[in-house]
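Recall the central idea of this unit: under ordinary conditions, the amino acid sequence of a chain determines the structure it adopts. In this exercise we apply that idea directly, starting from the sequence alone.
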Amino acid sequence: MCQKQIKLNATEDVKEFVKAAGKCDFDIDIFYNRIIIDAKSILGVLSMDLTRVLTVQCHGESKEFNRTLQKFAVA
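Accordingly, the structure predicted from this sequence is:
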């Protein structure tokens, strides 16, 4: 299980992130504070406060999804 901090600035970023998450065969959660959303749900991710830094928790490993995480990673 890995955790990364990301920032999704636009709706296009959310679409790209959810599409990449949907290709994974393991669970991916995205959260801040006490709110936890399935990262494969575009409506769930869009309902989050995108002005915040979000934490992604992966319950598996995918090189392709890791590239997407790196693209949106917070330094």
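The longest strand covers residues 2-6.
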